[in-house]
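User: My collaborator sent over this chain with a note saying "see what the structure looks like." That's all I know about it. Can you take a look?
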Amino acid sequence: MRNNKLGTFGGVFTPSLLTILGVIMYLRFGWVVGNVGLGGTMLIVTLSTSITFLTSLSIASIATNTQVKTGGAYYMISRSLGLEIGGALGIPLYLAQTFSVALYVMGFSESVIALFPSLNIKVVGILTTLLLGSLAFFSTKATIKAQYVILSVIALSIVSLIFGKPVENGELGLLEVTSPEKVGFWKVFAVFFPAVTGIMAGVNMSGDLKDASRSIPLGTFLAVGTGYVIYMLLPVILWRRADPSLLISDPLIMRRIAYWGGAIVMGVWGASLSSATGSLLGAPRVLQALTRDNVVPRRFAVLAQSYGSENIPRGSTVLTVIITLVCVVLGDLNTIAPVLTMFFLATYGILNFTAGIERFLKNPSFRPKFKVHWGFSLIGAIGCIVVMFLIHVVATLLAMVVIFGVLGWLRRRRLKTTWGDVRNGVLLQLVRFILLRIKWMEDPKSWRPNILVFSGAPVKRWHLIDFANGLAQEKGLFTVATILPEVSVTQDKIYQFEKQIRDYLTEKNIRSLVRVVRAENPFIGARQLSNAYGLGPVVPNTILLGDTTDESHHEPYAQMILHFYNSRKNVIILRDEQPLTSRTSLNVDLWWGGLKGNGGLMMVLAYMMQNSPHWQDVKVVIKMVVTSEKAAIEAERNLDNLLSSIRVSFGRKILVGKREDFFSLLTADSQNADLVMLGLKSPDSEFAKYFNDLKAKTASIPRRLFVMASHDIAFKEILK
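Assistant: Without extra context I'll predict from the sequence alone. Here is the result:
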């Protein structure tokens, strides 16, 4: 099987060089020289080739680090930046290459019709597509051999141009030659740059190469270097043999200059057909790799199959030919051509970024034989972005919309891979940078709950996870913690349990950390985890847990609460005996005992609920019991001033009654509330008895949130 694969010259150098020496060289290079002169043209060629060369360095670095299989640039990106980003670029890259086949075929057809007007342009285009498609369908080697013929024709045209003669205005047979208006440097740069972007033609043959890690770097460098020499030689010939006005006015000025003009026409045809062939070989292989990775859904599995001794992706080739035929029949694709160029440039930019970030992070797994400083790759990535905007701003924005649209679609599908990628390394570096700069002391102005949820099995106490998720809502952190008995669960099972919980939460669209530990019993385990869990200054500041109904657990439960409190952590206990059926409208009663301590934390939590998209239309009412009408008037005034100063839209209600009637008033007034918030006293040796009495006195309230604020958190400062 290995003997049927391609080497460096046929598999990389030839398709890459033929795509570089394309139609722009024949039909637009004279226009470039006429507009910016000899020095300007050489500068444009050098700048353009520099970006391509930097991208080639990045490609060489990635290709020599790992085996590059079918898919070329898509394979490299997906294995480094992840399947979603690889697919987001791979799908547009496939379409760009397929539409490029149609563009090159249509360009070829137009040049044929110019010489033979009696022919039908669509018929020529269809026959050309079928001929090239047949070559690609039956034999990759035959297609490559056809490219050798085309390469010879292009070489003949260049030799004919070298031995040509100067051209005067009168030789064109024109009645009058006007001085056309010249355009600026960067517009000319934008027209020329696509001429040097043919390196993907060789990279996309990665799966057909005998030794991709050797052939891709070597063949790409040779193609870029050869293209640069030719593009630096041609402007000297053009500048010396034709007037700038002629260079700008006549797209086929090379035909006039060449020793044999027919060689230039054959070169134009060869350039069109070679570029079409390169894209027709590369596009199906990208589609094949996308299908094998399940980026393209599994029902199209036929697109992933290879056939024959040359492993030709015939299913993908047929689909590519069909799309090309449709485009050829429908007609002009010039309106989307700039967008296609943007897809190629975006791919180059991401390849540079991939190599740069891998080298910068110095991951142990990234050990390329061809080493490139990350700064060169970064310059290449920036250059690609700048050129994209220089060529066509609107096309750049449209390409970005398409790429991010595909990325969003792939993220929703939650594709799974069997390989790792560099993203965790990037995130780890960001986390390290941030952790070392976070203040160790709590800052009231930036306080958010970092919640440790003792939920046990998520299915059993889902209401705890749901409540924590509502408070966090992508702004704060929370961890779902489970304590397992060490007698019956071995340590090697912990990872499996954590993965099951993570998968379950992912299915529920919950973004949470997960921690599973073993302990003698749940209370000891919770205390140990609260002591040890966290990283640097990022440690849980709030504990959320449910209640216990087992009488034998009351005392250890109370001791656990005391431990949390002494560890300077807020404690929230949620009793939810009647889960909410809807989040559309939520009435919250907050029983108030003052802003200090529990009152401040309860107001912060209520405000976060009111502003969380997890719940809709949350109405918070602060309720307070006083012993006289006079005290009620004073309390109303104080609460109105407080609510105005802290800028929250809470209601308030003052009840008059005896202190001993507090729980009867609470029960009667909050019977229909969706959630009742109550403060807890600081724990002591009698806390178990106190908490059981509190639960008994509020037993008729189905949903209660008991709140105990840590004594060193200045929630009053948060509400200022």
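A starting point for your reply to your collaborator: Residues 1 and 431 are 47 Å apart (CA to CA).
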